[in-house]
């Protein structure tokens, strides 16, 4: 029943911005942790930004060092949607971006092992 569907990926020039959306269903969205991960070719999947549940936790966010200050994760609890606003994009941000949910924890880290449901991903390409 749990479903996550990413959208918003595409091609953007260095320094540009992109907004990713993840529409979710099938779990108590505002209670549990959700996050964004990415995987570049030849690299392991890494956590980008994760946020704790609003009602189950405190809604606090965590960001990976390389994206801190440039990316912002937010939750739209009305529409069960998690957003990743990406600014000042760099070529090294090129990857497939995945949305994930940890339906066992309101608080969670940002390791892929902690998340049990995943979207199929959306491609982000940063190139001039």
Provide the fold topology:
Layout: E1 3-7, E2 10-12, E3 18-25, E4 33-39, E5 46-51, E6 61-63, E7 71-76, E8 81-86, E9 95-102, E10 117-118, E11 122-126
Parallel strand pairs: 2-11
Antiparallel strand pairs: 1-3, 3-8, 4-5, 4-9, 5-6, 7-8, 9-10, 9-11
Tell me what the structure shows.
It contains no helices and eleven strands. The protein is 0% helix and 46% strand. The strands form two sheets. Strands 2, 4, 5, 6, 9, 10 and 11 form a seven-stranded mixed beta sheet that branches. The chain has a four-stranded antiparallel beta sheet with strand order 1-3-8-7, with no helix packed on it. A hairpin with a 6-residue loop joins strand 4 and strand 5. The protein is globular and about 40 Å long. The mean pLDDT is 97. It has 128 residues and is an all-beta fold.
List low-pLDDT spans: none
Q: Rg, please? A: 13 Å
Helix-strand pattern: EEEEEEEEEEE
Nearest-integer average pLDDT? 97
Beta-strand content:
over 45%
Major beta-sheet overview: 7 strands, mixed
Shape: globular
By secondary-structure content and strand pairing, the structural class works out as: mainly beta
Helical proportion?
A: under 10%
Distance between the termini: 40 Å
Got a strand count?
A: 11
**Count of DSSP-assigned helices:** 0
């Amino acid at each position: 029943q749990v479903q996550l569907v990413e959208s918003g990926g595409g091609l953007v020039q260095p320094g540009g911005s992109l907004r990713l959306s993840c529409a979710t269903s099938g779990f108590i969205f505002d209670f549990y942790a959700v996050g964004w991960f990415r995987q570049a070719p030849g690299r392991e999947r890494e956590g980008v930004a994760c946020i704790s549940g609003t009602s189950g936790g405190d809604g606090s966010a965590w960001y990976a060092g390389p994206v801190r200050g440039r990316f912002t994760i937010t939750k739209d609890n009305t529409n069960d949607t998690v957003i990743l606003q990406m600014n000042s994009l760099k070529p090294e941000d090129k990857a497939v971006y995945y949305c994930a949910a940890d339906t066992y924890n309101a608080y969670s880290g940002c390791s892929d092992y902690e998340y049990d449901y995943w979207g199929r991903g959306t491609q982000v390409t940063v190139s001039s």
